[in-house]
Amino acid sequence: MFTDKYMESNILVIYTGGTIGMIQDPATGALTPFNFDALYKHIPILQNFNCRIDSYCFDPLIDSSNMNPSFWIKLAKVIEENYEKYDGFVVLHGTDTMAYTASVLSFMLENLNKPVVFTGSQLPMGVLRTDGRENFINAIEIAAARAEDTPIVPEVSICFENRLMRGNRTNKFNAENFNAFLSGNYPLLAQVGVHIRYNHQHILKPNFRKLKVHLNLDPNVAILKLFPGITENVVRSILNIPGLKALILETYGAGNAPTDAWFLKALSDGIAGGITIFNVTQCKGGSVEMGKYETSVQLGSIGVVGGYDITTESAVAKTMYLLGEGFSGGQLSQMLQTPLRGELTID
């Protein structure tokens, strides 16, 4: 029988930086990093949980706008080194690039059988109307939740504004509202109200295999967002970046793009030169359907890879991961279209 009880769990809170970890200094009024050694003093309600909460703070902390693959590797190593000591992990992270980090961690942590819950806030923890306190408490409860001694959400997720989403299905869509994240193509994993209602049918099941952490990421990836009036110089300048191995092509609607001869020739030349082009939609919901309209038929004919309903954030993360694992050419294209961590749906 499923239960959302958090009995005798050990949780590691990992603070990377970001708004949620800031608190107002009573003397100066300035915002300073939260002292996680005094966690129970700042949030005494946490003592009501029947679990031990430890913390790990990166030094130096990093603003999420400065997030990069080398930091993702450090974060994955922290989880790897502490994996057997804890039942779940809560990662406090700035909101701007949280969807990228949650996506890439989902690929780096193969055979993940424990919760890794990302959360953050729009207002600092030390501000009166902060959303950070509730986000943090909810994330702790979800990371600690077990059913018959098995974690209820054994995957990388984002907990924000009373909603739990698969990490590699999200994007930040609002810079001001507390409801800042969207999972446009995948149902919520849970909703938090009086009770936490888990959507068990949508949560990845544990496979009980040994965790395998992948630490090789190849950042030779670029994003090209199409817009009306885009010029040949712009397209070719991106495709001619030295060392570029893959291009995330953000197309219109269901994967549509201009049919101008110069545009198709530029993409075709890039593919012939060894660049994999991954077609994702600019829309926050919906899927790339190569060949549905005439404007996408020719993309498929020259070898552009359709991304189905994957997000741009997840497409970037997955491509860096697969390139780091040594995939290229046809193998890379095949793996990009294969669901690995629940990141895309193939009809």
UniProtKB/TrEMBL annotation:
Report domain Asparaginase/glutaminase C-terminal positions: 220-335
A molecular-function term among this protein's GO annotations: asparaginase activity
Record InterPro entries: AsnA_fam, Asp/glu_Ase-like_sf, Asparaginase/glutaminase-like, Asparaginase/glutaminase_AS1, Asparaginase/glutaminase_AS2, Asparaginase_C, L-asparaginase_C, L-asparaginase_I
Task: Identify the Gene3D superfamilies for this entry.
Answer: 3.40.50.40, L-asparaginase, N-terminal domain
* Keyword set, alphabetical order: Hydrolase
Annotated residues that bind substrate are located at: 64, 95-96
Q: Look up the EC number in the record and give it.
A: 3.5.1.1
- Domain L-asparaginase N-terminal: from-to ranges: 10-202
What is this protein's record name?
asparaginase
Annotated organism of origin: Lentimicrobium saccharophilum
Q: What is the lineage of its organism?
A: Bacteria, Pseudomonadati, Bacteroidota, Bacteroidia, Bacteroidales
